[in-house]
Design goal:
Organism: Termitidicoccus mucosus
Number of domains: 1
CATH superfamily: Ribonuclease Z/Hydroxyacylglutathione hydrolase-like
Shape: globular
CATH architecture: 4-Layer Sandwich
InterPro entries: MBL_Glyoxalase_II, Metallo-B-lactamas, RibonucZ/Hydroxyglut_hydro
Strand order of the largest sheet: 1-2-3-4-5-6
Cofactor: Zn(2+)
Radius of gyration: 16 Å
Strand content: 25-35%
Number of helices: 6
Number of strands: 14
Protein name: MBL fold metallo-hydrolase
Largest sheet: 6 strands, mixed
Structural class: alpha/beta
Keywords: Hydrolase, Metal-binding, Zinc
């Protein structure tokens, strides 16, 4: 499995294209602004079909390009039901959007929950619910690849904001300790913003949630 990182939108949000050229398939984790323009050449070059779009949480900077991706590819959308209003009726975020910005709604095909397991790109994937930044924030863990896409729950040396609607520092602290820091230390953590890191590094050095 190959990991391609694309960054877009005013919040410099990451979208992760996970591709398996030998299978002719790919998955996109989160969809920042104009992500389709970035991933389309890679899909063409690798002769991959985008099978699914996984939304780590419903904040606008992670879904801004989702509608176009789904229109172009028919990708199956996965997300957590707690963020259904943000994803399917994004107008509820109106007060949080930059002036003049509109977000198109996206229909979710499969609602993910804590402990769900499924197969993608020939790999086993586990879902963990990590609320605190956003009620429906989930991570996608590939045990064999030793990697997890965590949305905005945890960053390299930082954590997600908890001052937005639905945020809670107490809840986020609990999520990180019980759902992220319990992953193997050598798990690579791919966040929604900034550099990737590892579970072990954050447990030792993160100033906000240290084991």
């Amino acid at each position: 499995m190959q990991i391609h990182v694309f960054t877009g939108g005013p919040a410099y949000t990451h979208g992760y294209l996970l591709s398996a050229p030998e299978r002719g398939e790919a998955v996109l984790v989160d969809a920042p602004e104009n992500v389709w323009d970035a991933i389309a050449p890679v899909l063409d070059e690798q002769k991959c079909r985008l099978a699914e779009l996984w939304i780590t949480h419903g904040h606008w900077d992670h879904t801004q390009g989702a509608a176009e991706v789904v229109r172009r590819t028919g990708a199956k959308v996965r997300a957590h039901r707690a963020d259904q209003p943000l994803i399917e009726t994004p107008g509820v975020m109106g007060a949080l959007l930059p002036r003049g910005m509109e977000i198109e709604p996206v229909k979710v095909d499969a609602w993910m929950a804590q402990g769900d397991r499924f197969e993608a790109l020939g790999e086993q994937v586990e879902v963990r619910h990590v609320p605190g930044h956003c009620p429906g924030n989930i991570l996608f863990w590939f045990p064999a690849q030793k990697m997890a896409a965590v949305g905005d729950a945890l960053f390299a040396g930082s954590i997600g904001r908890t001052d937005l609607p639905g945020g809670s520092m107490r809840e986020l602290d609990h999520s990180i300790r019980t759902q992220i820091y319990t992953l193997p230390d050598d798990t690579r953590v791919f966040p929604g913003h900034g550099d990737d890191t590892t579970v072990g590094e954050e447990k030792k050095t993160n100033p906000y949630v240290r084991e």
